[in-house]
């Protein structure tokens, strides 16, 4: 019997290939916090999920995943509203953030609706702007410390420890916490 419950991966999109098969064959659960996977990488994660618990989130913070659930709910209420995504990160970050891409996909937005800002030492900020006639609604999440990623991983691990084989994301583990009746 092994004594490892989880492998937590913050490395790169190729990291999963160095340990994935060995972890899955031993029943070690995998938490992947990689923001930029290609379709074939996600297919590999799903293949591993047939043997063990695999969790993937391009942004592992709780707050940004709350933001994602809230924005999907708002879009259901107002499906034809104008929506823009603004993401801000540190000056050296290249390309559009994986989180912004995930938000755009979840809201069925074209990539042209993502606006990127690179300045100073911003850890990460994502804003979704809903433009209604005569008003706007802004949902914002800002990571002010990289510790937000660590606490997000711990939350995921706590909620996955008793899960069986399968492919999971934050929506899977957060949804049970929300009142499904829609009552406030």
Automatic annotation (TrEMBL):
GO cellular component labels: cytosol
Pfam families cross-referenced by the UniProt entry: DapB_C (PF05173), DapB_N (PF01113)
What EC numbers are recorded for this enzyme? 1.17.1.8
Catalysis performed (reactions):
(S)-2,3,4,5-tetrahydrodipicolinate + NADP(+) + H2O = (2S,4S)-4-hydroxy-2,3,4,5-tetrahydrodipicolinate + NADPH + H(+); (S)-2,3,4,5-tetrahydrodipicolinate + NAD(+) + H2O = (2S,4S)-4-hydroxy-2,3,4,5-tetrahydrodipicolinate + NADH + H(+)
Class of enzymatic activity (EC top level): oxidoreductase
Please list the residue ranges annotated as the Dihydrodipicolinate reductase N-terminal domain: 4-59
Q: Which InterPro entries match?
A: DapB_C, DapB_N, DHDPR_bac, NAD(P)-bd_dom_sf
Q: In which pathway does it act?
A: Amino-acid biosynthesis; L-lysine biosynthesis via DAP pathway; (S)-tetrahydrodipicolinate from L-aspartate: step 4/4
Any one GO MF annotation of this record: 4-hydroxy-tetrahydrodipicolinate reductase
Keyword Secreted carried by entry: no
Q: Which UniProt keywords apply?
A: Amino-acid biosynthesis, Diaminopimelate biosynthesis, Lysine biosynthesis, NAD, NADP, Oxidoreductase
Ranges for the Dihydrodipicolinate reductase C-terminal domain? 63-174
Protein's GO biological process = diaminopimelate biosynthetic process; lysine biosynthetic process via diaminopimelate
Q: To which protein family does this belong?
A: Belongs to the DapB family.
Q: Which PANTHER family match?
A: 4-HYDROXY-TETRAHYDRODIPICOLINATE REDUCTASE 1, CHLOROPLASTIC-RELATED (PTHR20836:SF0), DIHYDRODIPICOLINATE REDUCTASE (PTHR20836)
| Name listed for the protein in its UniProt record | 4-hydroxy-tetrahydrodipicolinate reductase
